Amino acid sequence: MWDRYTFRKLRGVEIEAVKSFIVFRGALSQISVLFFNSQDELFGFGFNGRDYNILGVTGSSFRSETIDSPTKVELLSGKRITRMSTGIHVCAALDEQSNLYWWGQDLDQPKNVRLPEIVAPGHKFKAVSCGAQIMAALDSSGVVYIWGKDRQMWLLQVEHPVKHLSSGYYHIAMLAENGQVYTWGDGVEGQRGYEGYTKADNDLAKRMDLNQECTSVVCGTYNTMCLTVSGELWACGGNNMWCGCLGVPHDKMSVHIPEKVEVPGRVFIITATFHYSQQTIFAALTSEGLYWWCERPYTSRAPDPTIVRLLAVFESPHDQMFHVSESCNSRLSRLFDRCLIDIPDSLAEGVTSRLQRLIEDVSSSED
Questions:
Q1: pTM for the whole thing?
Q2: In angstroms, how far is CA 101 from the centroid of its own chain?
């Protein structure tokens, strides 16, 4: 992710000023980078795309296919952005005032692009997730709105208020306040999580056939992962090399009823990354270590010395920005092939301490 090639784009002062960043592969699977500096200025470089302007740039860089050096994204600088989601053709962000911005390909007129702008002024949102050509946003009252698939801020009817959501390529998984998971959109590969899916279900939010209380949901391109309160991981959807294996104990090409993923220990965090190739890489942080899986039908443990490196091998996890730790800002120019990130407070204390020691070990080895 932050590799030597990427760092060559940044001078020493720029590197030390990086406060948060996101790395992704949109259309054509080429690398794009967006990062905020200490002055809340947003810069982008890498793939931009004439048909997407996925970095949201204006001026002479507008609709450039590639941007070779960090270029300021004027329309999102100084907006105090707190969250960002990067899809294949569209991107979105939330600011401190819960305003929703989006940009990229115009979903109504695909030959046009949209510059970053506030969507639905007056509405307050707490989460957003972008897929291939869809975007879903969750407002402060637990209501979900959808853009794309011939929808413009379409209010989705869900039985219970929603507290978290995640977008796949063309489907959405929603975690309701009662701990149940609901899905919407395409379900051909089983990603909706129930038997009997038909195309008539595409515009309906239906409950996944999983009778366990969940704490998190994460979508791959054509698959869905659910984390339960007991720390178990359940999955459904495509289970093959082209969209990513689920880690279940068989090689059936698709799973319609969620099955338990064979990952050791209690799962604390599940994340996924995907891009234009439609392949999904899943990773789970458990009480036994960090595990990841993709093309192989089973999970693999990442050896302790490489955990930090593995966290930074691929693109940023979907719907997540990395926030650079204050303690490593001055050393980033020397940590060419890895980036240290703040440890989430939500991790169990033991796992947090373990990861912190690993990060310190890697840092000291570079000194």
A1: 0.85
A2: 16
